[in-house]
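Shipment paperwork, digital attachment
Item: protein structure file
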Amino acid sequence: MELNKIYNCDCLSGLKTLPDNSIDCCVTSPPYYALRDYGCDGQIGLEPTPELYIEKLAEVFEEVRRVLKPDGTLWLNIGDSYAGSLKGKGSNSEKYMQPAASNIGDIITTYNLSNYKNKDLIGIPFMLAFALRSQGWYLRQDIIWAKPNPMPESVTDRCTKSHEYIFLLTKSANYYFDNKAIEELAAYDGRHNLNRYGSDKYRTGDTGLQQQNINVKTTERWRTNDSGNFVRNKRDVWFVPTKPMKEAHFAAFPQALIKDCILAGCPENGIVLDCFMGSGTTAVVARKFYRNYIGIELNPKYIKIAEKRLNNELGMFL
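Attachment content:
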């Protein structure tokens, strides 16, 4: 496949054209289960059961694992779904492009699931994460995407949902991860040692705790970057607001969400894959930070949106 291009095909067909061990990093977000009809034959997300949905995604990500380099990483954003109350249906303001509710058309019928009670949270993210782990992926971390401006919900018997998961999965135990590229600024007031040392309670065995040399330097609490600012390791809760788009795609990544995935997971001039490219955010961010991309997208309408964004947003960067 040609670099820096979005291919109009289903994800499995597109992935099968890629050679083994050719991709540095994959950043992607599959269609969520039973939430949207994108109007394309062969789309993922409308399977009759969550288990069949997970099985289909596992097949896709087995191909992703094949094409990743041995030190490659997968950053997988996935949301959850509820077994609904069977009340109401949504509507479309533009068919397949801007749903006005979370359940459209006849998708609501998939909520009548034999193994789930109505109103059950299905648990899709960890169902998928554990399925991929059983395939051989290393499940390294669950990152919480905390949304300061979540979509309002009319429910009164639970809290409004304001987070999603990003799973960091790897092909090997040792993999590319640029920790310094995503360091956070840290507040340091000068009152504590820059290094963390063992506690006095470990000096002797009087407390029944294992003895250790408390003077041995262990983990750094704070360090400085090249600009002299105190920094720390990035935490696993990422506060990133959602961003509206003028275009029609309703579920676009915020660029700020995936920037650190790409900076940490892919070296400069490397290749970032998004096998559910949608409106092209992965491609835009990859090019802004001097990485290449390969995109796969089933819906040609979204490819037009993505290509327009790439043309409009990259002029000042490239």
